[in-house]
Amino acid sequence: MTEIEAAIRDEIAKALEWLGASPRSLARLNGADRFRLYDAAEQLGADRYLLAYIGSWAEDDIGVLAELREWNAGEAADAIEKARQGHGAMKPPAGS
């Protein structure tokens, strides 16, 4: 596994965690191909952007990695903003 592929997998795992994947399901997805990761994200209600990033993984690894990092950063910012507005407790950030 290349360094970029490992980083992409880490970002997808963070995204799945943001979507509510349990540690058990994340462990089952460890090493899964991109199609299985896409299906897992879709089942968790991922938006079309995240699904597109996962779906285009094989086409542009560096671009996909950048998009996944941006998506995860946006999820973190959204969670902080919701907590500031009093819309529920802020969950811990996705693993780093």
List the helices and strands and how they pair.
Layout (H helix, E strand, L loop, with lengths): L2 H16 L4 H7 L4 H10 L4 H8 L5 H24 L12
Helix pairs in contact: 1-5, 3-4, 4-5
| Gap from first CA to last CA | 19 Å
Number of helices: 5
- How many distinct beta strands? 0
Helical fraction equals 55-70%
Mean pLDDT: 88
The SSE order reads HHHHH
**Molecular shape:** globular
Q: Which class best fits the helix and strand makeup?
A: mainly alpha
Rg is: 13 Å
Q: Name the beta content range.
A: under 5%
Count of the separate structural domains: 1
Main β-sheet description: none
Structural notes for this entry:
By secondary structure, the chain is mostly helical. It has one domain. It is 68% helix and 0% strand. The protein is globular.
List keywords for this structure.
mainly alpha; 5 helices; 96 residues
Question: In short, what is this structure?
Answer:
With 96 residues, the protein is mainly α. It is built from 5 helices and no strands.
